[in-house]
Amino acid sequence: MSAPLIVLVGPMGVGKSTVGQLLAERLGTGYRDTDEDIVTAQGRAIAEIFVDEGEAAFRTLEKEAVRTALAEHEGVLALGGGAILDADTRALLAGQRVVYLSMDVEEAVKRTGLNAARPLLAVNPRKQWRELMEARRHLYEDVATAVVATDGRTPEEVTQAALEAVELKEA
Ligand code: S3P
User: Fold this and answer.
1) Which of 14, 39, 46 to mutate to test the pocket of ligand 1 (most atoms within 8 A of CB)?
2) What pTM was computed for the model?
3) Strand (E) positions, 23-133?
4) pLDDT digits over 96-117, tens only?
């Protein structure tokens, strides 16, 4: 079975798609994003899926999208911020090269702000961030083979740090 070169995990707004695309360029490979796969397959925005069907239904779609992408994609794969909530997904990530892009809460609130496209942060983003990260930090750490802090770094610097952390040769 093929496997992605790198899987990126971490909270929303941490820069998974920006860094993922830069990593893919540097490694001469393709970029894929499970949020985008879901939007394409469903023909709706993620916020709409949350509103229409609720978070549980979204998580079911997400779990399937991650399983498929892990089996199909050989390049850089970014997972939605909550994908690691699922125990089966975490089990699938064991043995993969997983980079956790981290950031502190203040940075997170600054970067994501009141973003309607991010339904989990619609009300009181700072408090919601704290709760989200308290619930998830250890899950990100559990699945990660490398942790790369993004605070105060440009996407290019984060990309460089991620390449060094996983010791992959560039194309
Ligand atoms: C979510 C993160 C989002 C998206 C959905 C839920 C989360 O993805 O999957 O809004 O639970 O953290 P990004 O991390 O790509 O923004």
Assistant:
1) 46
2) 0.92
3) 31-33, 76-78, 98-102
4) 999 999 998 777 777 766 555 5
Q: Which of 25, 13, 18 is nearest to 5 (CA)?
A: 25
Cα of 110 vs centre of ligand 1, distance in Å, is 16
> What CATH number is associated with residue 30?
3.40.50.300
* Residue 66 burial (CB count, 10 A): 24
Structure confidence at residue 1 (pLDDT) = 62
Of 46, 60, 59, whose CA–CA distance to 119 is shortest? 46
pLDDT at 118: 66
Report the half-sphere exposure of 53 (CA within 13 A, side-chain side).
12
Which pLDDT does position 127 carry in this prediction? 82
1 lies in some domain: no
Residue 90 labelled as part of a binding site: no
Q: 42: part of which helix (H) or strand (E)?
A: helix 34-42
Number of domains present in the structure of the chain: 1
Domain span holding position 39: 6-166
What is the arithmetic mean of pLDDT over 10-29? 95
81 alpha carbon – ligand 1 mean position (Å):
4
- Direct distance between the N- and C-terminal alpha carbons of the chain, in angstroms, rounded to an integer: 22
